[in-house]
Every structure is written in C-alpha cells, then in structure tokens.
Amino acid sequence: MTIDVWLAAAIADAERRGLPELKSMLETLARATAALRAADFNQRADR
Amino acid sequence: MITIEEFGRRLRAGELTSTQVTDACLQCIDRDNPRLNAFIAVTADEARRQAREADQEIAAGRDRGPLHGVPISIKDLLDVRGLPTTAASRVREGHVAARDATTITHLRQAGAVFVGKTNLHEFAFGTTNEDSAFGPARNPHDPSRSPGGSSGGSGASVAAGMAFATIGTDTGGSIRIPAAACGIVGLKPSFGEVSIDGVVPLSRTLDHVGPLALSVADASLVYHALLGDAHALPPVPLPPHSVRLAIPRNYFLDLLDDEVRARFDEAVARLRDAGVHIDEINLHHTADIAPIYLHIVLSDAAAYHAATLDAMPERYTPNVRIRLEMGRYLLAEDYVRALAGRDVLRREVDAALAQHDALILPTLPIPAPPVGASTVPVGSGTEPVRNVMLRLTQPFNLTGHPAISIPSGRTAGGLPCAVQLVGCRMQTDALLKVALACEPQIAPGPLPRSGNVGG
To answer: Which of B10, B140, B281, B321 is most buried (most C-beta within 10 Å)?
Structure first.
C-alpha cells in the first residue's frame, strides 16, 4: 500500500468514526512513515 | 534537604530518625502540594507507621541497608498493594492493586517508607505532565513551568523536598526529562535490568523503571534496591583521568537552546580541565530516530489501549486519546521496518561506545517549558514541545543503553539544565562509576534544591 493510499483511507476512516482532529496527526505520521520507508537499512527482494 | 547517604550516616549515629524526616516530608507535602500538584495520593498514616517500624528496627539492631527509613514517592503507574494505580487516567477508576509490583516488594524489603503516589502524564504518554486526570503537576523552580514528564510529579516531589527519592518510568525519557527540568539526577537503567512487573505499560519494548534522586550516589542506592540488592553501596568512582567520553555532535547538538548549549559547553570544559578525555564523534542514521520511535511506541500503545479506546473513549484526556488512536492506523510492514531500524541504531551506539566509557550530551534541549505551551522557540526557529523534549532521550530507549541525567547549572532565569551520560548495554554499574567521577565537574556547586529536611 502506498503512503498516499494509506493516508486517504486512514483519514476517511477517522472522519467516519467522528475523529476529524486525527487528520493533521495522520498527515504528520505519513511524513514519518515516508522517511522510514526511505531509510537505507530497508531491504528489498530484488537486491 | 539532605541526601540519602547523609541521612543514613545521621540515622545510624542517632542524630536523626526516620520518623523525623518522614514528618518533614509530609509537612512539605501539606505546604507545597496544593501549588505543585505533585501527588495524586498521600499515604501519611501508612508512611508514619512504616517510619516508626524502621526506627524500632534500627533501635533493635536490624539494619535493612541504605534505604532503611528513607521516605520515597512512587509514580502512580506502579502497583502498591491496597492502593489504586490510576496512571493519572479516569480509565482506571475503581482499580485497586491486589499486590505490589516487584520493585515495590524490593523497596519494602530495603526498608523504604512510601509517602505517596505521584502525578504523571496520563498513561505516561507525554512529556509535560499536562494531560492528567488530576490536573498538571508544576515545576518547583517556577510553578508556571512544566516539571517535565511523564514522571513530572515524581521529579517535583524530590526537587521540592517532599521525598528523598522517587521511582519513575522511562519509555522515551520520562525519568531523565523531569530530572533535567527539576534539577535532580535521573537514572534509566539498561533495558531489561529492573523488573516492569506490576507497572502499567506504555510500550513493553521501550519501558524502563528507575530512580530520580538528589545525587548520583543516591540514584545508585535506589537502583540497587530496585534490583533487590538492598545492601549494595555505590560503586567506586573512576579516576577522572581514566575516563574516556565521546560527544555525539550531529543531531544531538544541532537543536539546543542557547543557555542549555552554554551550560553543556561549560561542563565539558570543566571535565577536560579535570583530566577527562573527551572525543567528538558522529553517529549515523540519526535522522531516522524519530520515525523509528514513533512507529514502535504508537503500535505498542495502541495494542494495549484498543479495548478501552472503543469502550470508554471519553475517559481519556483528549490529547492522549488522539495520539493513541493514531497508532491504530499503522501498518505491520512499517512496524517491522522500525524494528529493523532499531537494530541499526543499537549497533551504531554500541560501536561508538567500543572505544569510550560513555557518551556525553545534553538531556533536554530546552529549559522547562511554560505549562500550556504547544511550541517553544529553539535556535532560530520554533519546535513542537513534545518533539523537542524527546529528541535527546528517546534514542536510548530504542537502543536500551543505560543513561543518567545530571544537573549542570541553571539558566539566567533560574531554570535547571542537565547533561546526560550514556553507557554500555547491561553495564549500568560501569555507567554509575563514570557518573560519580564526572558529577563534581558537571554540577557546578550545590545542586538546585529546595525543601527543608534535615537542614
């Protein structure tokens, strides 16, 4: 799942649950997740 | 305020009794707790009973060790049998601990006197102590400021003279942050050394239990008692000229308040003057610290709180509830990436310590922030309070290395600053030897203390 798809789904679910204040925090979390996925210690199946 | 060491000498010389110092702490609580809100529960009657028993034992020749008759406060995250463990949350309403946490059992065996249970950030999930069902604790050096967190009431209780030492927990810095903000010593032992049985978890892979106290020697005494070694004395300090330290420069010195930086530089200069060898190094992967920490702590906390978030969400304070909810959206694959990054960081710190006794760095990049502040000015910019307060402590919860915070002077406004020493994994006693050697140079003159116990 890409981060964009994950973020859109998470925000939609938070709004459905009546937690719209989660949106800005999920956006911050998405930036942290992007940094984590870009780290050089991650392994890939093709390398 | 006197140290545990000094009280022990005077107790055994017949100059002071446990009853006297316990009464003095309880009087201090009566006087100052209304403005500091350090305690959620004060156990005055039980403390006086324990103190009388401690005095009777000393009179009868039974000496339980250095903590015999010493008044201690307990973060209200640890089970003490017969008392609620509130975790500063309405979620825990009605809870009463059926038995003591293992560490509390050890403290009882060591003869400690429990004066009460201290305030904290709800479920230990915050750095300021503001989000508590019992209201915010405040800093004894300036009640308009936070005492740090999450063990904020614990830090305030010792700095204000309400207890000789306190037991805190540290998942991202919650012992060292309040120790730094309140001008006392805080020790996070190596991961896994001190039992977390009977402690409400935040993250079982990051949680540590440890002491906050007035000096490194006192922290050592309490640490050993927590392990069940009630008669252990502090280790012998290393000679300063044999100590080898390393300053991790990148990331760790990049974002500091000007006065915190000045106090750190002055402490380093005094250590060098005393003969301590200090190198400067760089650690890799520091940009990944916060993302790694966030993915682990949010996932672990969400797993523990999922049922109550669904059943009684209104009982959480709003900020803590929302942060916990964030953890429910993380993907397993990202959690696994964070675990891999944690291993990398652990190896980085291990490698840095291969040629050194300890790392030396500031504990808290800023002085205690104002209560209610969501951002603070640091350097040329503004930072979120939570992020900046965790910045220098959370790396060593991820890696598990023992770390100790020692006061290093004050700002012009009188707020404490602190230096952190980080030792080799599973070698907390070796770190204490280094800390004992460095404490006189790090702390210029008397530690910032208040209170009136023992003159």
So the answer is: B140
